[in-house]
Amino acid sequence: MTMVRGAFPQLLATGAHAVFVEWRDIKQREPEFEKIFNVETSTKAFEDEFQMVGMGPMPEAPENTPTAYFDGIQAGIKRYLHLTYRMGSRASWELVEDDQYGIINKVPEAHVKSARFTQEMVAANIFNQGFTSIVSTDGVSLFNTAHPLVGGVAATNTAPGITNVITAAGTYPNRPTPDVDLSITGLQFMANVFERFPDSQGLPSHAKPKYILIPPESKFIARELLGSSGKPYTSDNEINALLGEDLTFMVSHYLTSQSTWFALADKGNHQLKFFWRKKLDAKYDDDFDTGALKTISYMRFSCGATHWINTYGSNGP
Amino acid sequence: MAAVLSDHQPIRVVQTISGNNPLSGEEPEQLSQTFLEGVPVMLNSGFIKEWDAVANITVATATAGIAGIARAPGSNLSSSGKGAPTAFTGVGAPAAAPTFGSVLNQASAINFTPGAPFVTGRTPFEIACPDTIFEATFDDAGGSATNATTNVNMKGKRFGLTKDATGHWYVDFAKVTQGTNTCVIIKQLSPLDGAIQNGRVWFVFEDALMQLSGN
């Protein structure tokens, strides 16, 4: 479609006190995905990341006995295949010329808002679809009650104190069973899961949740849970033990469920990745025959999770 | 009887009438497709598969016919559209082919050689539309070298497409019954070949067979 004067008669005559231009006059939200994902750049069509697993515990060697040998293990691979996102708009030469408010010339700015939404939505869908279709190197959903460990049952036998956390031998969860709302017990269980996070051979890792990622509807309860000096929702004079976890919450306006919530370690300690292949850019040109002004905006990126470690998600009750 | 040539060139776009870029599409691929680049493909229940060679279409319909010419070989997906992105999602696993081996204790994990060809779960193709002119080799399924020789009288005539033993398709002298087995209309002979045995011909698809662009 080409925007022509017949569709914008108000722009052709002066006299309006103001034009409310949505893409300029409605303030946009700050980018959110950059606070969550490890943002990197790529110069290739895709980026491959694979996992290498080390050894389990070092065994005791009785005097003068041969050394026991163990192998590293190559685990799964994850590919980030960059997709192109692009949109264009066209306006007739006459409309550009006759526009008394200079609005049509600013239409390409609306592309920026559209592009930002796409960036945020694609990134947020790593969480929205993390209970179903988003997978990392182990091939199961990103947030799962039983991530299979490469070390298998030996790994969960090795990992100290995880029997109350796991649902099956040889696996480790980053999702509660069953799913729970954001609550004291939900956060406490999540903190325990983080504290006990093993590597693929069952060796404890340094894992600490830093952010609770929530939809806007949960911000009030998040404030109560993470901000009360006393234990919320009790008449006893207990302290709020969650304060010691030093958790903060972050509202994502692109989560589609009102009851999901997630916990993440600090950036750099989890494996959620966002690759810029080409940041948002634009091209302008005039159509030689008609004089129509054409603008195209485009970008390329991909995002996902290489590994589920140091992430946690609950899909509400 | 075999055609004169045992192998034929992939069908490709040579020109558009408008001078614009040829109209391209990309749709989720049906499972188990192993077709070659440059073959006719069709949409089957929303998924791309190699054309079934059914040209007997009496009514223009979107459920049969030719969607276009594949720009990449089939990916032999394990399920239809596997990994294909949907609205606001990226390409899902495996995103590459071939995969190999297995991962210890992780039945759903995959492995492929870093840098392996990428797979999006979709097939890119040049859409069969009135604007796009394709090129293919002319041959005769009956094996006659004389019949496989192009000539200027072929311009404007209709022929069918036949698949050879290698998986490529050619414009077939033996298919000339309109409404039964024809699917292309010859626009001209390749200017590089002229009238020669197994010359290349430039053609458009018949309207009734264009799945995405027919009348």
Outline:
With 317 residues, chain A is an alpha+beta fold.
What does this structure look like?
The complex is a heterodimer of chains A (317) and B (215). Chain A is of the alpha+beta class and 317 residues long. Chain A has one domain (28-55, 76-314): phage-related protein like fold. Helix content of chain A is 20%, strand content 25%. Chain A is built from seven helices and twelve strands. Chain A has helices at residues 22-25, 33-36, 93-98, 107-128, 152-158, 184-195, 219-227, and strands at 38-41, 46-53, 73-81, 83-91, 147-148, 171-172, 211-214, 248-251, 261-264, 272-286, 293-305, 311-314. Chain A has a four-stranded mixed β-sheet. A four-stranded mixed β-sheet of chain A has the order 8-7-9-12, with helices on one face. The two termini of chain A are 46 Å apart. The mean pLDDT of chain A is 95. With 215 residues, chain B is mostly beta strands. Chain B has one domain (12-83, 123-209). Helix content of chain B is 0%, strand content 27%. In chain B, the strands form two sheets. Chain B has a five-stranded mixed β-barrel. In chain B, a hairpin with a 2-residue loop joins strand 3 (40-44) and strand 4. The mean pLDDT of chain B is 93. The interface between A and B is medium-sized, with 35 and 24 residues.
Estimate the global geometry of chain B from the Cα principal axes.
elongated
Structural class from helices and strands of chain B? Answer: mainly beta
Q: What is the percent of helical residues of chain A?
A: 10-25%
Biggest sheet strand order of chain B reads 7-9-8-10-11
User: How many independent structural domains of chain B?
Assistant: 1
Number of structural units classed as domains of chain A: 1
Number of strands of chain B: 11
